[in-house]
Every structure is written in structure tokens, then in C-alpha cells.
Design a protein that fits this description.
Length: about 190
């Protein structure tokens, strides 16, 4: 039987964990970046929309190239159509970033509301496992979705930037918490 010592400070695979000062520096940089993003959420929303547009165009191009590489696998026409759809969506996001941000925000609101409803159903059906955590997560999802949808289209101008800023700050706090773990200081 193999036993594993959990006290070893190694990251992914056999990579050593980053030093304390790297974790602190990364955490502080992410927190500062998060507050900078929150300083102008509308600008960041537009920049994020343009970035997502370029990613969609690149993904669409790869999808089309992949269709030709794997022509014998079947679904060639569907892959080409999907690639064209990605590219068209990307062009819309880049060409009209404000309208693109509105589209993305509306879809995000719908996805949050629907996924929240599904999580509530799962939470109720798995109450003993403790499903109440999933139920609570579902309630938050529905509330967030409805806040976005009921404030639409105004929310489309700030939600994406706001969520990015909050994510950066929470990611930075996570790195700081990781740095100050008792085992992290021994690295």
C-alpha cells in the first residue's frame, strides 16, 4: 500500500511551490489590478468584449482548419458552420463592443438564472449529502441572474468589468492566504 505525505510543499506534479515572496507579490499585484479594474468598469467591459471577440475569431479559424484536418471524421459541414459562427460572433463583438457587451451580459444573466435553478433542483434532491450548499449556491445564481436581467441594458455596461475586478481581488486574496499558510513559510 502506498502512502502519501501531505506535508510536502509541491505544486502541480513534482514542481516546487513558489516562494513566499512570489505568492505575496502576486497576491498584491492581483488585488491592485482588481481595484484598478473597478475604477473604470465600463472601459474594462469594452476591452473585455473586444478581447473575447478576438478569441472567438481565432477559435473559429481553428475550428475551420480542424474541419479540413479531420475531414474523414464526419461532421465536416457542421464544423465549418460552427467556425463561421464563431468568426461572425467575434466580428460583431469587435465591431460593436458596446452592443457586444450587452449581448454577453444578457447571456450571462440567463445562464446564471438557469444554472441557479438547476442547482436548486440538485440541492433539493441531494439534501442529505449536504445539498443545502448546492441549494444556497443556486439561490445566489438566480439572484445574480435576475439582478443582471432586471437592470438590463444598463447592467450590460458594467457587469463584465465589475465581475473581472472582483475576480482579480479574490484571486489576489487567495494567493495571500496561500502565502501565509504555515507550510508555505517553510518553503
Amino acid at each position: 500500500m502506498t502512502t502519501y505525505d501531505g506535508s510536502s510543499r509541491t505544486g502541480v506534479g513534482s514542481l516546487p511551490a513558489p516562494p513566499f515572496w512570489i505568492c505575496v507579490l502576486l497576491g498584491l499585484a492581483l488585488i491592485v489590478a482588481g481595484f484598478l479594474v473597478l475604477g473604470d468598469v465600463m472601459l474594462v467591459t469594452v476591452i473585455s468584449t473586444i478581447f473575447i471577440g478576438w478569441v472567438a475569431i481565432i477559435a473559429g479559424a481553428f475550428e475551420i482548419v480542424h474541419a479540413f484536418w479531420t475531414k474523414g471524421w464526419g461532421g465536416f459541414v457542421w464544423q465549418i458552420l460552427l467556425g463561421i459562427l464563431y468568426i461572425a460572433f467575434g466580428v460583431v463583438l469587435i465591431g460593436q463592443p458596446v452592443a457586444g457587451a450587452l449581448i454577453l451580459t444578457y447571456v450571462l444573466g440567463l445562464v446564471l438564472a438557469v444554472s441557479g435553478f438547476v442547482r436548486i433542483l440538485i440541492g433539493v434532491s441531494r439534501w442529505q449529502d449536504p445539498g443545502w450548499v448546492m441549494l444556497l449556491s443556486g439561490v445566489f445564481g438566480i439572484v445574480a441572474g435576475f439582478i443582471i436581467l432586471t437592470g438590463f441594458p444598463t447592467t450590460g455596461l458594467w457587469v463584465l468589468g465589475f465581475l473581472l475586478g472582483v475576480d482579480l481581488i479574490s484571486h489576489g486574496i487567495g494567493w495571500l492566504a496561500y502565502a501565509w499558510q504555515p507550510t508555505a513559510r517553510s518553503a
